[in-house]
Design goal:
mainly alpha; 51% helix; 2 domains; 2 strands; hpI Integrase, Chain A; 318 residues; DNA polymerase, domain 1; single chain
Length: 318
């Protein structure tokens, strides 16, 4: 561990180790943090500030770095988008958060606010209930692959599972289901964080029907019937993506439909039923409520429409 008065640059390797050991962030997240912080290191070097300590970093330095980002260009010679600038700022904010956690004097991470980019703002693409119903009815339930696909679709919409979490499910997790109407199941989610997901009575019904067709010794819950006999039979994420795309086309669902769209649709349906964001956060396994707030535009639009319909002032005398 570096001393608190060591230069900021010297703290970055410890920060990345902290992300892995104490925060449990995925390898990809750590790689991204390193890449984004390399930009900050480059700026420190160019401005001859490579030796400043965390306690010597000032709000003016942060402002100067933001100006540097706003004038930076990507590999194609284009000015960085606001959304891309935010990634660099998020990484720096995480580093400042590390200093706070380790009682190293520095400016607080809250001093770095993220600029909003209306055009580049992240939006959620989801299906309405009519589209969901058509999608769930698309598989041919008279065939074994069709039963499997029906169980996959129902499971994704019921649980909000990420595709990697669905792929990792094993058959043994679903034994002795005869007397169960629904199921709580522990899964290991993003960043190796455990969470509980909930299979509805409807989803569990289709999993039970699918499992009655299984006479093989494969460990995976969802298997590929087209794989070679000597190959691992577990369906891959790419295969599941192709399955969802196929049924989206059959059901006339939007072209953007993916497994993650069902996760968004599950969260949106819960929000429209009046479930609060904190509860949605737990269902989805988000570490931060900030991740869940991408869904607020859905409720905001619904509230706006309700306000227009019932409280527009049209019934008042002029």
């Amino acid at each position: 561990m570096e001393k608190p008065n060591a230069p900021i640059i010297k703290h970055i390797p410890d920060f990345l180790d902290y992300c892995e050991v104490e925060k449990g962030l995925a390898d990809k997240t750590q790689e991204n943090y390193k890449r984004y912080l390399d930009k900050f290191v480059s700026w420190l070097t160019k401005t001859h500030k490579q030796d400043i300590t965390p306690g010597e970093l000032t709000p003016d330095d942060i402002w100067a770095y933001r100006l540097f980002l706003s004038r930076s260009q990507n590999d194609k010679g284009q000015v960085l988008k606001r959304s891309t600038q935010n990634y660099y700022l998020v990484a720096l904010r995480a580093l400042l958060g590390y200093f706070v956690a380790k009682d190293i004097q520095s400016i607080p991470p809250g001093k770095i606010t993220l600029p909003k980019d209306v055009k580049g703002q992240k939006t959620v693409k989801f299906l309405n209930l009519d589209q969901i119903e058509k999608l769930l009815l698309a598989p041919d339930q008279k065939t074994i692959p069709g039963l499997r696909d029906k169980a996959i679709l129902e499971s994704l919409f019921s649980t909000g599972l990420r595709i990697a979490e669905l792929v990792a499910l094993n058959k043994e997790q679903f034994i002795n289901l005869k007397d169960k109407k629904d199921l709580e199941l522990g899964v290991i989610g993003k960043g190796n964080h455990p969470r509980t997901v909930y299979f509805s009575e409807r989803a569990l019904l289709w999993i039970k029907k699918y499992l009655t067709t299984r006479q093989d010794k494969e460990k995976a819950l969802f298997i590929n019937y087209k794989s070679r006999k000597d190959a691992d039979g577990r369906l891959t994420g790419r295969s599941i993506e192709r399955i969802i795309k196929k049924y989206a086309l059959t059901a006339g669902a939007p072209i953007f439909t993916t497994p993650h769209t069902l996760r968004h649709s599950m969260a949106t349906d819960l929000l429209n039923q009046g479930v609060d964001l904190r509860t949605i956060q737990e269902f989805l396994g988000h570490r931060s409520i900030m991740s869940t707030q991408i869904y607020t535009h859905v409720t905001n639009k619904r509230l706006r429409d309700i306000h227009r319909q019932f409280h527009s002032g049209k019934n008042l005398k002029k």
